[in-house]
User: Fold this.
Amino acid sequence: MIAKHSLIQHQYIDRESGQVCTERFYAPRMINLLYSNVLENAPFLFRLLIGVRFTKWLGYLNYESFIGGKILGNDDFMKACNIDSGEYLEDPRSLDTLKKIFERKIRYWECRPMPKDVGVVVSPCDARMLCGSLSETSQLFIKGKFFDLEELLGKDKKRWLAAFHDGDFALFRLTPEKYHYNHTPVAGKIIAFYQIGGAYHSCNPYAVLTVATPYSKNRRVVTIIDTDVPGGTAIGLVAMVEVVALMIGSIIQCYSKRRYDDPVAVGTGMFLEKGLPKSLFRPGSSTVVLLFEKGRVCCFANDVVANMSAGGVISSFSQGFGKSLVETDVKVRSAIGNVSTLQRQSWRHRLCLMNFSSPE
Assistant:
């Protein structure tokens, strides 16, 4: 299914200020051309252009070659995007290419404080967020618009499809100027880790509206975390799906317990602490999808939910999908949902009865 949409203005709400902001699109004419004329009139060429070779070449041209820096200008780009160089861990003078700016490290332990409540789910990235439910009985019901669950997790992953059936989800859309490290949204043990091949569709709202369920068509990495273990967040199974996009050639898994030092690749059996760096998206736009078991999220953040139906905001998603869907710009490690105290107490009691052994 392909829906036709003109390139329209897209606005979101900044969480910290409450202000309505207009998104600055990157290469809008190219996106418009790719997802209209090329898609409709030259489907074979379109498939080539959303493939890995083109996306790596385009990423290199924009972010690594001298051409990208000359066209955009590193300092001008930082100013236009309101990137705060005061957050940098490295000397700003060392970030002399757009690629280095996009892959910057920040003093997240200072500038991205994390709630102390162990039952809080935190944002995995600096991104524009939407939340929803796959259950038709939920007021947040959104199904088949951004992803298809079977496609997203893999049609052969029966265990995980059953676990997240009718569950809740949160979408985090990273725009190119964002801090591109992903952090762990919950604490728990990895019980599955796998990759699924796919295309490199843009995460630009226009492209999302044009291609049905794009997030489950792109190449992605799936991490299934069991949080019902000692030291875990006690919110059941959580799937963290990291989705590549146009100009994102790879996702580097680099979990670190000591800020960014001594990074290691994540894998099955590893325990993840909450709020720590887990992976790095290569420059460009990208998306993270979090999936939760039905009934395990007590509630998503009130402001994020309220903003989704805010009036007077021109959202491409609202106009394209016929449902109020206004994004909130959130910071990594900020609270986006929580598990109820009753659920946490119940699980702690079960752990005591099992001599602190995690479930099968």
